[in-house]
Design brief:
Number of helices: 17
Shape: globular
Helix content: over 70%
Order of helices and strands: HHHHHHHHHHHHHHHHH
Radius of gyration: 21 Å
Number of strands: 0
Largest sheet: none
Structural class: mainly alpha
Strand content: under 5%
Distance between the termini: 16 Å
Length: 414
């Protein structure tokens, strides 16, 4: 049985946190579009897409594997060992990422501006990856992290409006974002160490191997998600231009703001599901499925409302100069519904029932399908092809998961 008091506290704190995370970009979003222009704004998004591959490599699935472990233990000695091991592995992965980045950039013939923006984007991605999300979620401390992040976000907003003044202010924007990510990561890490009196230790090789093995089982699937997230902006920029990347991202950022509620619910549920499913497996799964039916209906209702008012939403947030973004948003606004279903079936049920192999296969199939569709549809339909590709991929993943859950009769056989 879920502890709905803790779930509500996690949901409200994560809601506050996500509002801060999405409200800050939405406040600065129209200003940056007009100030930087579609080309330079698209350049920033294109660089961020490249950096997300490095972030994906650094995370290594720890946000789920280590999250599960930290959620079910109160042993301070083990907590120190786990925290030290995970952060150590992420730090080593960060160094490797910088080495790989250096080698790639050495052989690329790109403009100086793009080169610098990519470097800044990767450092920001490293800071975000070192931010101990897995620990805060596992120990349900997100209500504390809200108080850490909010002031930093406010300072960043003030700096953006003060320093980013024309289309030549791209580097200044990246410096502000780097400052924000570094301060968030540093202060949160210090808070966790002091709050749990964690002793930083040098992990043994066996401990590193053990954590890598557990995380990689999930990473093989979670890592493939990058194939149908970052690849959208990356391939769109390569096949078309940075202006199209800016238009797609304008609609996608608003979609992600709508989808943040789905993300919050999933993050709030995961620690409790990890504990409860080991005690009352069938009851927990039945509760999750009931929750999915009710939640999916509400998300679908909100999706229909967003679709009907898509033109007003785009004009209000992105401006009238981004008319093509309206059609893009009309296509991708249905994605939160499919993501809600796949989160419950895949993340909450499959991962917690150790169905990682089939989960990984589904995600990889979805990733490969998305890249194939992008390569076919973008040349034919430009930015709209990217939108259709993402919607079809997310729908495919949800339907396959639903089919497998019921084909294996998970509810009655567990």
């Amino acid at each position: 049985m879920f502890n709905y008091r803790i779930l509500f506290r996690s949901f409200t704190s994560l809601t506050s946190l996500q509002l801060i995370n999405y409200l800050a970009p939405l406040i600065t979003f129209p200003y940056l579009l007009q100030t930087l222009g579609p080309k330079n704004y698209g350049l920033v998004i294109f660089s961020t897409a490249i950096a997300s591959y490095f972030a994906n490599f650094i995370d290594l699935g720890f946000n789920y594997s280590a999250n599960q472990k930290i959620a079910i233990t109160n042993d301070l000695s083990y907590i120190s060992k786990l925290f030290s091991t995970v952060q150590f592995v992420k730090l080593i992965s960060s160094v490797l990422s910088l080495i790989i980045l250096s080698l790639i950039l050495f052989f690329l013939n790109i403009s100086y501006l793009l080169l610098i923006v990519i470097i800044y984007s990767v450092f920001i991605a490293i800071n975000n990856s070192l931010y101990p999300t897995w620990f805060l979620l596992g120990k349900e401390l997100t209500h504390y992290s809200t108080f850490i992040i909010a002031p930093i976000r406010i300072i960043s907003i003030i700096l953006i409006f003060s320093i980013v003044i024309d289309d030549n202010s791209v580097i200044e924007l990246m410096q502000i974002n780097l400052f924000s990510s570094f301060m968030t990561m540093t202060i949160s890490t210090i808070f966790i160490i002091r709050h749990y009196r964690i002793k930083i230790i040098l992990p043994r090789l066996k401990e590193i191997q053990s954590e890598l093995f557990d995380s990689f089982k999930i990473y093989k699937g979670i890592g493939a998600i990058t194939l149908y997230t970052a690849s959208n902006n990356l391939l769109l920029g390569i096949i078309t231009n940075n202006t199209m990347v800016g238009i797609f991202n304008a609609a996608d950022k608003i979609r992600l703001a709508f989808q943040s509620g789905v993300t919050i619910i999933g993050q709030s549920l995961f620690p409790q599901v990890s504990r409860n499913i080991k005690i009352e497996k069938e009851k927990t799964i039945n509760e999750l499925l009931l929750f999915m039916y009710i939640g999916a209906s509400l998300v679908l209702l909100l999706t229909i409302i967003a679709y009907l008012f898509s033109e007003n939403i785009i004009h209000l947030i992105a401006g009238k100069n981004y008319y093509p973004a309206i059609k893009v948003f009309e296509i991708i606004c249905f994605i939160p519904f499919t993501v809600f279903v796949s989160n419950i079936l895949g993340i909450q049920i499959m991962l917690n029932l150790e169905m990682t192999k089939i989960f990984n296969k589904i995600i990889w199939c979805g990733g490969i399908l998305n890249i194939s569709l992008l390569l076919i549809l973008i040349p034919l339909l430009s930015v709209f092809g990217a939108a259709y590709s993402v919607l079809f991929t997310e729908s495919f993943i949800s339907l396959i998961m639903l089919f497998i859950i019921y084909k294996r009769r998970i509810v009655t056989d567990v």
